[in-house]
Amino acid sequence: MYLIMLGAQGTGKGTVAGILQKETGWPQISTGDIFRSNISEKTELGIKANEYISKGQLVPDEITVPMVENRLNEEDCKDGAILDGFPRTVEQAEKLEKMLAKKGKKVDLVINLTTPRDEIITRILNRRVCPKCKATYNLTMHPSKVPGVCDNCGTELVQREDDKDENAIKQRLAIYDEKTSPLIDYYNKKGVLITEEVSQKINRLGKDAAVDIINRIKGM
Ligand code: ADP
Ligand code: ZN
User: Fold this and answer.
1) Active site residue 172
2) 170: which of 1, 20, 76, 123 is 20 to 30 A away, CA to CA?
3) What is the pLDDT of residues 73-107, one digit of tens each?
4) Between the CA of residue 92 and those of 34, 155, 176, what are the distances in Å?
5) What are the residue boundaries of the structural domains of the chain, listed by start?
6) For residues 88 and 58, is the Cβ–Cβ distance under 8 A?
7) Which of the 8 DSSP states describes residue 194?
8) What pLDDT, in 10s, does the model give residues 47-83?
9) Residue 13 catalytic?
């Protein structure tokens, strides 16, 4: 099955996608993680993408779309994948449909994660990531067992460059509102959208949403 994680920055898409990957065996494809790996390895793609990422802008489709298509054509994606961070625009959604159609596949389920905006900024500022295995933690809500060290692989946790500055975060949220949020309507009309709220206010974490989603998948 091909799943899409939709939702603004800081709603926990990566965390939920990671749980779903473990449960289903379908690989999590995070465009942000692929870009960051390329940036740290200083590949040609990474150098180009960083011109946009460092400014909080979207990377152009000429770079992003073939990167996703190549990844989806890999053997481990033949039965399904969990897309985390793609598509982010209606144009990308249309291009995704075409690339899946070539393989006789379609988007089966889109998960719209929602979190109140006031919680989102704090969550992003408190986010810490493992540069090696890409696990995500939160200093207050979901800390690592040993402070500053990844539970999975023992690597020292870091804060993403684009998570350090509140203005950069606000810029990314503005792009989400303008370019990505229309996808909620787009996929709702196709009848594949489910919405899951994740918020401290209602004491509902990403892992609670994941339980719901897994039940949903089992019933499909
Ligand atoms: P966030 O959702 O917190 O912005 P991501 O890790 O998903 O972080 O992405 C980091 C950056 O990578 C984005 O700000 C954007 O510049 C770029 N990026 C990721 N996915 C896409 C995409 N589908 N299209 C264009 N740019 C993307
Ligand atoms: Zn790790």
Assistant:
1) yes
2) 20
3) 999 999 999 999 999 999 999 999 999 999 999 99
4) 17, 34, 14
5) 2-218
6) yes
7) E
8) 999 999 988 899 999 999 999 999 999 999 999 999 9
9) yes
Q: Which residues of the chain form beta strands (DSSP E)?
A: 2-7, 28-30, 81-84, 109-114, 127-129, 136-138, 193-197
Whether 35 is in the pocket of ligand 1, judged by its Cβ within 6 Å, is: yes
| In this structure, CATH architecture of domain 2-218 | 3-Layer(aba) Sandwich (3.40)
Please report, for residues 36, 194, 209, 214, the alpha-carbon distance to residue 138 in angstroms, rounded to integers and kept in the order given. 19, 25, 17, 23
Tell me the whole-structure pTM to 2 decimals: 0.94
Quick one: which H or E segment has residue 65? Answer: helix 61-72
Distance set, CA 80 to CA 67, 83, 166, 176 (Å): 17, 10, 36, 26
Closest CA to 86 of 30, 129, 160: 30
CA of 149 to the centre of ligand 2 (A): 8
Establish whether residue 9 lines the binding site of ligand 1, counting it when its CB lies within 6 angstroms of any ligand atom: yes
The strand pairing partners of 83, in sequence order, are: 4, 29
Closest ligand, as measured to the CA of 38: 1
Ligand 1 atom at minimal distance to the Cα of residue 86: 23
Q: In what order do the strands lie in the sheet with 28-30?
A: 28-30, 81-84, 2-7, 109-114, 193-197
117 catalytic residue (yes or no): no
Please work out whether the CB of residue 58 comes within 6 Å of at least one atom of ligand 1: yes
Calculate helix-pair angle for 31-40, 44-53, nearest 10 degrees. Answer: 120
Query: CB of 18 closer than 6 A to ligand 1?
Result: no
Annotated catalytic residue within 48, 71, 160, 204: 160
